[in-house]
């Protein structure tokens, strides 16, 4: 009677190969999760950038209603990316530069095109608005923790877009609003870092309401909501929106 012994060497090799494959898969998943953690906030900044470029294209094609909606989406994305970066401990120099570039595109260039610059004066106003956003992004630091100098450009853009939607595209009113926002951005007055998603519960509720209003509500409701939100930040910055309020 013949006895067949098990191929021990082959079994051990197969076992090692299987274990190494599982280890490799585990490491791949770990690397993938780490990549997602480090770049989640950057992904939101890129989404903001895409919203800005899309808004520019809509304005060039005279689809200003869609352009305003994209600006409001960018406003919500901008409020989220910093919170996500800090929550995941993924702040980086690249993320800061990407956020500034996205902000300049969405809240500077795209918002200025809403002013419909067809003449010399309107063109000068649009150019001044872009330069005001540029200056605001370059010199926002106040030296005081959690405090900015000049009105943050996302709030200015939100107010301009809300005004456009609520007024039915009244260009004169829009340009007056933009002129006022330029003064606020260059005023160098103090504004708090609101930290909407990292502060009191009611601020998170306000943000969730903004998401619902922009994505699921009629344009009138979304514009009124964002106008009220931006105006409250401009008029009562520290009384309401300071992270210590």
From TrEMBL:
Which keywords fit this entry according to its UniProt record? Lipid biosynthesis, Lipid metabolism, Membrane, Phospholipid biosynthesis, Phospholipid metabolism, Transferase, Transmembrane, Transmembrane helix
Reaction(s) catalysed by this chain's protein = a CDP-1,2-diacyl-sn-glycerol + a 1,2-diacyl-sn-glycero-3-phospho-(1'-sn-glycerol) = a cardiolipin + CMP + H(+)
Name the Gene3D superfamilies on file: 1.20.120.1760
Pfam families for the chain: CDP-OH_P_transf
Specify the protein's topology with respect to the membrane.
Multi-pass membrane protein
Q: Which GO terms describe its molecular function?
A: cardiolipin synthase (CMP-forming)
Q: Can you say what this protein is called?
A: cardiolipin synthase (CMP-forming)
Any one GO CC term of this protein is: membrane
This enzyme's EC code(s): 2.7.8.41
Using the UniProt record, give the first listed, main subcellular location. Answer: membrane
Q: Does the keyword RNA-binding apply?
A: no
Reading the lineage from the top rank, the first entry is Eukaryota
EC main class here is transferase
| Species in which this protein is naturally found | Probosciger aterrimus (Palm cockatoo)
UniProt lists the family membership as follows: Belongs to the CDP-alcohol phosphatidyltransferase class-I family.
């Amino acid at each position: 009677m013949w006895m067949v012994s098990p191929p021990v060497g082959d079994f051990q090799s197969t076992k090692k190969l299987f274990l190494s494959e599982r280890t490799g898969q585990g490491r791949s998943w770990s690397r993938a999760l780490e990549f997602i953690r480090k770049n989640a906030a950057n992904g939101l900044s890129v989404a903001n950038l895409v919203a800005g470029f899309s808004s520019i294209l809509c304005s060039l094609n005279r689809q200003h209603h869609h352009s305003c909606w994209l600006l409001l989406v960018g406003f919500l994305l901008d409020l989220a990316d910093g919170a996500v970066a800090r929550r995941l401990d993924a702040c980086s120099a690249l993320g800061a530069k990407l956020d500034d570039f996205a902000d300049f595109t969405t809240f500077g260039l795209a918002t200025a095109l809403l002013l419909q610059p067809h003449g010399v004066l309107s063109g000068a106003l649009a150019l001044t608005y872009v330069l005001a956003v540029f200056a605001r992004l370059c010199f926002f630091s106040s030296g005081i923790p959690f405090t900015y100098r000049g009105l943050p450009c996302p709030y200015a853009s939100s107010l301009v877009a809300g005004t456009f939607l609520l007024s039915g595209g009244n260009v004169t009113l829009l340009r007056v609003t933009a002129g006022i926002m330029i003064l606020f951005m260059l005023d160098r007055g103090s504004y708090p870092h609101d930290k909407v998603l990292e502060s009191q519960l009611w601020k998170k509720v306000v943000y969730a309401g903004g998401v619902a209003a922009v994505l699921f509500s009629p344009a009138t409701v979304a514009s009124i909501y964002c106008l009220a939100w931006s105006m409250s930040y401009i008029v009562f910055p520290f009384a309401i929106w300071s992270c210590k309020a």
